[in-house]
Write a structure and sequence with these properties.
Elements lengths: L17 H19 L4 E2 L1 H8 L3 H10 L10 E2 H11 L6 E6 L3 H8 L2 H4 L2 E8 L8 E2 L2 E5 L3 H8 L3 E4 L3 H14 L3 E4 L12 E4 L2 H19 L19
Parallel strand pairs: 3-4, 3-7, 4-6, 7-8, 8-9
Antiparallel strand pairs: 1-2, 5-6
Helix pairs in contact: 1-2, 1-4, 2-3, 7-8
The chain binds nicotinamide-adenine-dinucleotide.
Length: 241
């Protein structure tokens, strides 16, 4: 199966770089917090600090949205929330299915943050016949036999995979064949998808491994040494921040 997504250009068709797209949710989260506190305007420095981003980068990112703020006043919080939400496609409702309703799938189903951001959990799907009909987060789990019908009946374009790694590719293939074009993969495996299908993967253990690397380096700096050496005596490979 082709893996065309690996060769995608780093720029979206509308000219917004992928790196900017990846920061838009950070700005939106900070802006939503300001909006909830009824803060009307925010400077680029304040917003950059709240989002954990460099302020020059923020101004450059917002220039892609055509948003330049007002000198001495800053950015209009409500308008920026609207603008970023629109750019991210969040002004419409996105039905989402979660496949694999074990520990993780059930936790995801119970997470209220999806619905409040416009991602409605349309269905929960599992291969275990004993789970069929059982309510999780108020939704009855459906068997994988129903997968194609569920996708088509609900117009689902985003699927979340929370199955064991060994089942993930097969689940992915079925989701894609049924019409899903975006996949959030929690299973620790690399998925192959055809051109036009986007995959994002979440792996908390990789994040922890990166933190472990930095911890190890900090420990090395504190002791005045160069950090713990690898098993063969070489320095560990330097990973990008
Ligand atoms: N990305 C992360 O940070 C992260 C964190 C925790 C777990 N995980 C991964 O998430 C996955 C689920 O973990 P868990 O602890 O919830 O496991 P679990 O065993 O509790 O749940 C897995 C569920 O998937 C179902 N399933 C198995 N094959 C299926 C198929 N072909 N179609 C549909 N459903 C199927 C099982 O019936 C079960 O209910 C694992 O791959 C695990 O490694 C990832």
């Amino acid at each position: 199966m082709a893996t065309g997504r690996n060769h995608r250009p780093a720029t979206r068709s509308r000219g917004i770089p992928e790196a900017t797209v990846a920061r838009l949710p950070l700005y939106l989260r900070a802006l939503t917090a300001l909006s909830e506190r009824s803060v009307p305007t925010v400077s680029s420095e304040e917003l950059a600090a709240a989002a954990g981003v460099n302020s020059a980068k923020l101004r450059k990112d917002f220039s892609y949205l055509g948003s330049y703020g007002t000198r001495g006043v800053g950015y209009d919080v409500e308008y920026l929330v609207y603008q970023i939400s629109r750019e991210l496609g969040l002004t419409q409702d996105w039905p989402v299915v979660i496949v694999g309703i074990g520990n993780l799938g059930a936790a995801l189903a119970n997470y209220g943050g999806f619905a409040s951001r416009g991602f409605r959990v349309a269905a929960l799907i599992d291969a275990d016949p004993a789970m069929a009909g059982k309510p999780v987060a108020g939704i009855a789990v459906q068997h994988t036999d129903e997968l194609e019908k569920i996708i088509s009946d609900n117009g689902v374009s985003i699927g979340v995979i929370a199955t064991p790694a060994g089942a993930a590719q097969q689940v992915c293939d079925r989701l894609v064949a049924a019409g899903v074009t975006s996949i959030l993969n929690f299973a620790p495996t690399v998925l192959s998808v055809p051109e036009g299908v986007d995959v994002r993967k979440v792996d908390l253990s990789i994040e922890l491994q990166i933190l472990a690397f930095h911890e190890q380096r900090k420990a090395g700096e504190e002791s005045g040494g160069p950090g713990r050496k690898g098993p063969d005596g070489d320095m560990p490979a330097v990973m990008p921040a």
